[in-house]
Design a protein that fits this description.
Layout lengths: L8 E3 L2 E3 L3 E3 L14 H12 L4 E8 L19 H13 L3 E7 L19 H5 L8 E2 L13 E2 L2 H20 L4 E6 L4 H6 L14 H18 L6 E6 L10 H13 L4 E5 L21 H11 L2 E4 L6 H9 L5 E4 L1 H5 L3 H8 L11 H17 L5
Parallel strand pairs: 3-4, 3-12, 4-5, 5-8, 6-7, 8-9, 9-10, 10-11, 11-12
Antiparallel strand pairs: 1-2
Helix pairs in contact: 1-2, 4-6, 6-7, 7-8
Bound molecules: flavin mononucleotide.
The site of flavin mononucleotide has 21 residues, from strand 4 and helix 10.
């Protein structure tokens, strides 16, 4: 019997060849938001490596919505063509092209992670980075030493919604088939959701329902322009990872509301409201540490979910699906380690034992080599 991980899944009118999704992973390697050859190779190798879906990194819907100077963007038509080249390559190699639309909010104007992951400093400016004042729901800096963002007024909030919608139009023009809205990891839409960053008292803040209003409005607006046969996903942080933040129950209620506006899948991540983008530290860091979030949302909000976070082995991924805890499996760093992760998962699950489903440019040769290696036995030093 075919493992669930390699059973195609149809969402709306789109069929994924398997249930492995490459998680969005920002490369911070664009200039003025324009994707380049690094991005083509970075994403292309995951399609060649057999993933069902490849998700492009957090893509800024406005220039001030970048996290760093190196973020990919979609704030102008000039951004479309290089992304279209990537989407076409992914499709031609069997993967569904997906893109994550994002706005950094108060986390804008940050350093690239490898330069310190903090606010920009003189050394970054000397390297050629530009500094800008971020915008956010409230004039609440991320922490000490961070720039104080400008709070958006009502028109600013509506323009933010429009920027997401315009970026979605451009993503469509570039050929993407899944649109993922980034509402996690302490970035703008998460900031609207969380009482820690949203201190407003208008239609966009105050109680939980009003804090949800903008992310829901954006989901509804994107759903209205994204073709009915193509899915819309949304990534959320199940918990803020800080005192006094969102609760799991809040995010279950948000997920139910997302379902009602036509979002097809919730990606269950966590953390990022203060400090680093993802909540990778802490005592509970175990394999599949966010799977319980995907499971809870699926069960209580009745919406399909994607599990992500330290899913490292095909058998582990298959068990998550078999146990009905999630519908799709996202793989991030394990795919950086091994871009052929999906093909290797096929081998681990007995679907492809002799490279027979590898890309034809490689597979035939590898099958010949497998026969030789079987005769030779393992290499001994
Ligand atoms: C280099 C890198 C960049 C990332 N960029 C993004 C991003 O753009 N958007 C996002 O939602 N998550 C981002 N993440 C988080 C991953 O998508 C994923 O949720 C996280 O790494 C946990 O999954 P893993 O254990 O499979 O890596 C990034 C992670 C890494 C390692």
């Amino acid at each position: 019997m075919t493992p669930l991980l390699f059973t195609p899944l149809t969402i709306r009118g789109l069929t994924l060849s398997n249930r492995i999704v490459i998680s969005p992973m920002a490369q911070y390697s664009a200039v003025d938001g324009i994707a380049n050859d690094w991005h083509l190779v970075q994403y292309g190798r995951f399609a060649v490596g057999g993933a069902g879906v490849v998700t492009l990194e957090a893509t800024a819907v406005t220039r001030v919505g970048r996290i760093t100077n190196g973020d990919v963007g979609l704030w102008s038509d000039a951004h479309i063509a290089p992304l279209a080249r990537i989407a076409a390559f992914l499709k031609a190699n069997g993967a569904v092209p997906s893109i994550q639309l994002a706005h950094a909010g108060r986390k804008g104007s940050s350093q690239r992670p490898w330069h310190g992951n903090g606010p920009l400093v003189q050394a970054d400016i000397d390297r050629g980075d530009e500094l800008w004042t971020p915008v956010a729901p409230s004039a609440e800096p991320l922490g000490e030493g961070w720039l104080c963002p400008t709070a958006l007024d009502d028109d600013g909030v509506l323009s933010l919604r429009d920027a997401f919608v315009t970026a979605a139009h451009r993503a469509l023009a570039a050929g993407f088939e899944i649109c993922e809205i980034h509402a996690a990891h302490g970035y703008m839409l998460h900031q609207f959701l969380s009482p820690i960053a949203n201190r407003r008292n208008d239609r966009w803040g105050g109680d939980a329902e009003r804090r949800r209003a903008l992310p829901l409005e954006i989901a509804r607006a994107i759903r209205a322009v994204w073709p009915a046969e193509r899915p819309v996903f949304l990534r959320l942080s199940m918990v803020d990872g800080s005192e006094g933040g969102l609760t799991e129950a809040d995010q279950v209620a948000f997920s139910a509301a997302l379902k009602a506006v036509g979002v097809d899948m919730v990606v269950a991540s966590s953390g990022g409201m203060a400090g680093s983008a993802t909540n990778q530290r802490g005592p509970n860091r175990v394999y599949g540490f966010q799977v319980p979030f995907a499971e809870r949302i699926k069960r209580e909000a009745g919406i399909a979910t994607m599990a992500v976070g330290l899913i490292v082995d095909g058998r582990q991924a298959e068990a998550i699906l078999q146990e009905g805890r999630a519908d799709l499996i996202a793989v991030g760093r394990a795919a950086l380690e091994d871009p052929n992760w999906a093909l290797h998962a096929k081998a681990a699950l007995g679907v492809d034992t002799r490279h027979e489903t590898w890309p034809e440019q490689h597979g035939w040769w590898m099958t010949q080599r497998d026969r030789v290696l079987e005769r030779l036995g393992p290499w001994q030093p």
